Every structure is written in C-alpha cells, then in structure tokens.
Amino acid sequence: MTTSPGITLKGQHRIGGRVLFDADLLIPGGQWTCLLGRSGVGKSTILRLILGLETGGLFSGSFAATDGMPLAGRISYMAQSDLLLPWLSVLDNVCIGARLRGESPHFGRARDLLNRVGLSDHTDQKPATLSGGMRQRAALARTLFEDRPILFLDEPFSALDAGTRADMQELASDVLQDRTVLLVTHDPAEAARLAHQIIVMSAQATQNWPVPETVALREINAPETLACQAKLLAYLRGIAA
Ligand SMILES: Nc1ncnc2c1ncn2[C@@H]1O[C@H](COP(=O)(O)OP(=O)(O)OP(=O)(O)O)[C@@H](O)[C@H]1O
Ligand SMILES: [Mg+2]
Predict the structure, then answer these.
(1) pLDDT tens-place string over residues 161-180
(2) Which of 30, 50, 166, 222 suits a disulfide with 2, CB 3.0-4.6 Å?
(3) Are residue 24 and residue 98 in the same domain, yes or no?
(4) Is residue 183 part of a domain?
C-alpha cells in the first residue's frame, strides 16, 4: 500500500481581475501525473499555489492532501528555473535542504545521486561553470535528495539533450517509485512515456487525457507510446491557451 498521498484542487485563479484558469484536479497518490498546456496557461502557478508561494493572483477554491494531513513539508519542488545558489558548490547545492533544516547531510547519498545524473566529476564546481543541462541535472539531484512523498517537477528535463533526457526520465522513474509526482511538461513524448495520468490544462478546464494501458515507464518506441504521443500533440496544437 502506498504512503504517498494524492492531492485534490478545485477552484478559479484570477490575475488582475481576469480569470487565468478554472481547475478541477485529482492527482492520485503514488502515481505520476503529467500536466500539459499552452505556455502561460498557469501550470507553474498551480504548483506554486499548492506550495504556498507567491503567484501574483488570487485563488478562490481549495486544495488538500487526500489523507487529510497538511501538505507543508511533504513536497519536494524542482522549479522551472534551477534556483541553484551561485556561491555554493554543486554538492553543497544538493545538500542545501538538509543544511537549512540544521541536519547534517548524508554526503554519500548526495554523491551517489550526482553520479547517477552524470555530475560526479563536477561536484566541487560552482553553478556558473556548468552548462544549462548540467545545472538542470544538479537541480534534479537536489530535488531527489530531499526524499519526500510528493514531488513537483516543473519541466525538469527541458534543457537536456534527447539521450540524456531519456536517461534522466528513467532515473527519476526508478528513484521515485511509489511517490506522488506532478510533472509539468511541454513534451507529449515524455508524458506518453512516464504518466499514469495525463492532464491537459486550458483556461476553461483541466481535462484528463487517455494514457496507454501498459505500465509506465514505457518504451520510447512502443506503439502505444507513439500513438499516445501523436494524438496528444495533435490535440495540443489545436487548443487555445
Ligand atoms: N508573480 C506573478 N505576478 C503576476 N503574474 C504572474 C506571476 N506569476 C505568473 N504570472 C502570470 O500568470 C500566467 C501563468 O503563468 P505560469 O508561469 O503559471 O504559466 P505556465 O503555464 O507555467 O507557462 P510556461 O509553459 O511558459 O512555463 C502568466 O500570464 C504569467 O504572466
Ligand atoms: Mg511554467
């Protein structure tokens, strides 16, 4: 039985008096939910709302964990920008959460994660000396290091080359088994491969999109993955923001 709770959210979000989106979401516990939708529709805003961060707007509605317990402290967040601290090494950036909580970090685990994201030769470097894709992998390692039941990943693989992206999808899928993952992506192939549930967001509604019946993580070239990807892409091209 899973111990990772799901999340429900229902309500309307306004910015400057204008309705940005009307959403009704069920993010099941212990599964991967992929959230897609046009740029600017409010995907990152949904994550920030649930995290209690500034959104620049007003939400009227409610959200909660399905187990009735507070969400605070149970979500590990990888923001769309990497938010690496420039004065810390890659290793210290990965361990920053533990440090901020006054805990002594498990450096062995941090090094293992950095090895798995391909940064074992760069642990002592500062973020400014890394490429965009390397920075994104450092941020991914930091997020995975937090070891929380719920993960919010906002376009976590967007800066990676195709091969590394596939590798990192497989790593995240392995490390995050049985966790509740809400992953924002613009890539229909990524959603078709990773998702237990796909949600397509527009200003008017949040809509569940059919996923293949096979178990995630799916093969990139499996017929059901390719079919889901193609239909989803066609749909996304047709919807308004
Ligand atoms: N702090 C803020 N103050 C005012 N407006 C904001 C703020 N944050 C976001 N917005 C606005 O809210 C809207 C949704 O932004 P959001 O970042 O959620 O979009 P998104 O769906 O994640 O887009 P993308 O796919 O480009 O990342 C945009 O119009 C944006 O300008
Ligand atoms: Mg965004």
Answers:
(1) 999 999 999 999 999 999 99
(2) 30
(3) no
(4) yes
